[in-house]
User: Fold these one by one.
Assistant:
Number 1:
Amino acid sequence: MRSSRPLSIETRIKVILTAIAIGLTGLTVGTALTQGFFERTGEARLLLETAKSAASGLSAAQVEPLLMKLGPFWKEAPPGVPAETVHSSDGKVWRFTLDRSRIWSALVHRQRYVLVAGLIGLLVAVELAVFLAYSLTRPMKILAWGCEQMRSGRWVRLPTLSRTPYELEALNEAFNGMVEDLKRWQDFQKQAARVERLAALGSVAAAVAHEVKNPLASMRIHLDLLQGRLSAGEKESAAILGTELDRLNQTVSQLLSYARPRTPLFGPVDARELLAWIASMTATPCRLAGVQQFWGVEEGCPFLWGDEQQLKQVMLNLVLNAVGAQPDGGSVRLEARGEGRNVSIRVSDTGPGIPPELLERIFDPFFTTRPEGTGLGLSIVHRIVEGHGGRVNVETSPQGTVFSLLLPTAPPDKKES
Ligand SMILES: Nc1ncnc2c1ncn2[C@@H]1O[C@H](COP(=O)(O)OP(=O)(O)O)[C@@H](O)[C@H]1O
Ligand SMILES: [Mg+2]
């Protein structure tokens, strides 16, 4: 069996409209010609009838000139053809038949303008059909293109078409709405997967940290007890041991605070105080790394609604990351300003940026690229900001990185009212 492609809508519309145009033109011109034909034959018949009745009282010689006036549409009938007859009083008979082809050619000549107008009308109608078919099917072609793009994993937004019929415009909008919903759904799934991962890792981390913390504390106590009995050389080794134990303890505490966060205490937080605190806290690490620090809060910036301690931790993690990313110096800029019912806080640096392939993973717990890192800083930031009903956004390039936080100014239920 031969599989043939069905006719496209565009071709169908063109064929139907062209057929209608041809039909209408044919009907108009045909009506005009037929009407003319009947008028002409009527006039010719009337002339013949008049000649017939006049001839019945005249001789053949008198009838001859009368017949000359019959006009161009009667011709002598050949024998055997049905004909109209004229009889003279002395018995001569003339046979006439209508010269139809002459009538038609006279008509065509007379109606030539109608014919030309009909032909032009036909051409215009065909052009219109082509244009209409194109403008009706173009949005559908664009829609098909959009679906094809989506199928191959490329998110597209269809352009808004001007002078498109309402239904097709609605189809276009529905498609764009569907794409946005799908995108949101995908983001939500990614988020949900991250939360799940965090929860699983959190419970493992909490169990391990808990097991490690007690032996660490006991090791520290026994090391302090031993200090008194050691020689000068041994004391130096014990001091190193102590520093390492403290570092280990700090990591484990961080792990625990990540895995088992304390219940947040929400209240109004002044963004200016928050930034001033963080600037003074990080002044020394900045100076040591040769990083210049700038900070500013927009005039009239509203208070945040959050847990001050947690927000301090968020800011500390972000600023320490920014400093850590610039070991050879650079700058860190802290800015806060009101944005509708939220406060936007930006931490920007002039460091080397985050490679695109790592960007997806930086909020994952234990993901780090620093030898001394724990990989918990950003996952804590993410969790705290989420807990505040806010959002974290990262923009990064080889010229620097900007972490933006959007934090609410009121508790969620108050915001609604
Ligand atoms: N401002 C920044 N510039 C460049 N890279 C960054 C920045 N902040 C975070 N990162 C990247 O994200 C990773 C994870 O950060 P984080 O969760 O704070 O863990 P850690 O600081 O312990 O490495 C870092 O190891 C680093 O690769
Ligand atoms: Mg960090």
Number 2:
Amino acid sequence: MQSFASHRLVEKHRGRWRIANRGRRLLNDELTRAAYEAFSTYHTGLYRDLEEVLACGGGRMDVKKDGDLIARLSRFMDEFVFAELDRLVAERSPRRLLDVGCATGTHVRRVLEAAPSASAVGVEADPAAAALARLSLEVGDVGDRAEIVDTDVERFLRERPGETFDFVLLANVIYYAPIRDRAVLLRALADRLNEDGRLVVVTTFLSDDAFSRHFDLLLRSQDGALELPDTDVLCGQLREAGLVPRAPRRIAAGQPLIAVVADRR
Ligand SMILES: C[S@@+](CC[C@H](N)C(=O)[O-])C[C@H]1O[C@@H](n2cnc3c(N)ncnc32)[C@H](O)[C@@H]1O
């Protein structure tokens, strides 16, 4: 309690502890709550269980167990992704967006608000996150132009053959595909792009930055041997998929976060 008090999160009132204004603001902030939950559970759990992870070689199930928490936490990158989406929509307004791993639907909303004649499909493998996206898109007037499908993106592509898009977004999701499967996934998505279509990957990339190293270790410890992308390898995979990647742009000062825009040849 003294420690909370020293951070002015709680205070003494008539001899009893109560939550201070600062603590209440923190409790009411959805992103801060997600950060506390995530860092006190799976982010630090990795190091508590590290010996076992190293001995057994992976096997953590955070992605499956904490899908909705991961989706909520990834909103801390929204301001950077929003700025990139605004830039891209201003450059060329899309008609139809596919958001792969759309989580809570914030990027679908941002694009539809910036492009009033566009429509969008958000594909989300986690049913709880997909439900949050549907709920949040009901507010305002973009809901009738957005569809949220709760399924794996590969299954979506199989079940909706012939459907095409001019903007395919993979924001903070490419690292959920094992590295050996990424070129195939990117090819399947590139095949759904219209003539003037583009595919955009936003991702934390592998670097010497401490967060990048932590995140990469967290991914490598998961069941399925995931890992952060190296920028050159990612650009190579986009080329293998038949796309022409532009130079990766760092979109958050000091953070290992990039956007790579890849056009059809
Ligand atoms: C880290 S979150 C990022 C969400 C959002 N794109 C963003 O940038 O805030 C990744 C999301 O992708 C979803 N996902 C992972 N693999 C997927 C797949 N193969 N098909 C559809 N969704 C997937 C996860 O369930 C999760 O909600």
